[in-house]
Amino acid sequence: MKKDVLLKIENVNSGYGSTTVINNFSFSLNKSQILCITGRNGMGKTTLIKTIIGLIALRSGSIIFKNEDISKLNSSSRSIKGIGYVPQGREIFSSLTVEQNILMPVFTRKAFKYGVKNKLRDIYNLFPVLEEKKNNNGSSLSGGQQQQLAIARALIFNPEIIILDEPSEGIQPSIVSFIGETLKKLSNSFDTAFLVVEQNIAFISQLKSDCILVNKGSNVKTLTASQLSSVEKARELLSLESH
Amino acid sequence: MIMLFNIVYQFGDALSFLLLSAIGLAVIFGMMKIINLAHGEFITVGAYGTVVSAKAFNLPLPIAMAFGVIITIIFGLILEKLIIRHLYGRPLDSVVATWGISLIVSQSFLVIFGPSLEGLQTPLGNFKLGDYSYSEYRIFLIFFAFILLGLLYILFMKTSFGTLARATIEKPEIASSMGVNISNVYSVTFAIGAGLAGITGALYAPTMTVVPSIGQAFIVSAFITVVTAGASPFIGLIPAASFLSAVQTSVTFYYKATIGIIALLFSVILIIRFLPKGFSGLITKEK
Description:
The structure holds two protein chains of two kinds.
Chain A: E1 5-16, E2 19-30, E3 34-38, H1 45-53, E4 58-65, E5 68-69, H2 75-82, E6 83-86, H3 98-107, H4 116-126, H5 128-132, H6 143-155, E7 161-165, H7 173-189, E8 193-197, H8 201-207, E9 210-215, E10 218-223, H9 231-238
Parallel strand pairs in A: 3-8, 3-9, 6-7, 7-8
Antiparallel strand pairs in A: 1-2, 1-4, 4-5, 9-10
Helix pairs in contact in A: 3-6, 8-9
Chain B: H1 2-31, H2 39-56, H3 61-82, H4 91-113, E1 126-129, E2 132-135, H5 136-158, H6 160-170, H7 172-177, H8 182-204, H9 216-229, H10 233-254, H11 257-274, H12 278-286
Antiparallel strand pairs in B: 1-2
Helix pairs in contact in B: 1-5, 1-8, 1-9, 1-10, 2-3, 2-4, 2-8, 2-9, 3-8, 5-6, 6-8, 9-10, 10-11, 10-12
């Protein structure tokens, strides 16, 4: 069975000012696949993600999403095409309520007014703590709750792919594993694909996904899910510092 | 009794003047953080738009006012596209640029329309209580100021546009990556601020002599009210304006108008010193 390619990155170069951070980076991701990207700090993981979603300009190469080259589009048009983003540090809008944070992406999508109630219901079932606090300000949540909110904000418009930047950073282990189970559930039952930048090896191993190792802005190697099945093996293969 | 009504009337008049001076600036400076020194000239455009269209086309006053507001919105949109959009996140540069705009606009009005326009009659009538005569229009302005603020609060705090505007202003890049067309949101928000300043100009046009520097009468009041209102202008504006006009009215009542203005400015200094987050900081902390 041939799998549908959802996102294809080919020979991507990008960076800030005169510095090149990402060198000839290529990979592809299938529909409903989970793929991790790991590497030490400063190796260009966040730069790569920001290049894919359009917050950093591409210098050369191509970004193909659903068989269309999106590299000329700005970040808001890329999001409208169906790319969800969960930024590093969550970046919750502190002046909005929890529910306004979740619904915000819907307000910019004219076509997606129908079914938003049901989608919100699904999200509250997935993350009950958000329903309890739906009228609180975004800034009043704890780190783990903010992470759930950031994922909810990406889920609300049914994107085909959600890109998460360090979702486990600064969050207590029980919530990290809850988030890991949630991502697996979503990829199975809703066909959502996930691209997860992560340094937490237990979390990568929990996702049972392939993992790209990044070094100095290049794709060094891809390890398969079976190679990473145990945390000890994964730690050895990815040769990262333990957390 | 009459004395009490007199004080309440003076207080309401000062309050509505502060609120209406500040309302457009609350959006452009309070929310968007652009130190708009041309705020007074937006008010000027609204006033001239009203008076000139009323005279030239013999329009009834409400329609002339609507015309003045529309012209101010168009003026704001053009300025945003040409100049202001390059200054988001550059507050000091915005000071210089908007000051320049302010000079150009007021001098252009002087060149085109001369030193003053033939004024309009103040609408509505007067009524007498004892020895004093009161303008019904000024009482209307007090109610209108509160209604306008209420609508603005609903627009920015309760509607989907308001949610997008606040998200965009807080974190533009993230809002964009969630699908928001941030350049449209900025334009529309700025146009709303300009339109509100236009409303202020249109409303006060029939009560004042319309001169090219008419905007200068509003700009100081506008800034001190927005600054004392604090970080959440729509929450802080009414308490700030109430406090300032209470100070001004009571001091003016016991001494005279110039002392009232001095007391007003002095109380602003005290507020900034002891309540650096303004009145809205006081309210949101209590909540």
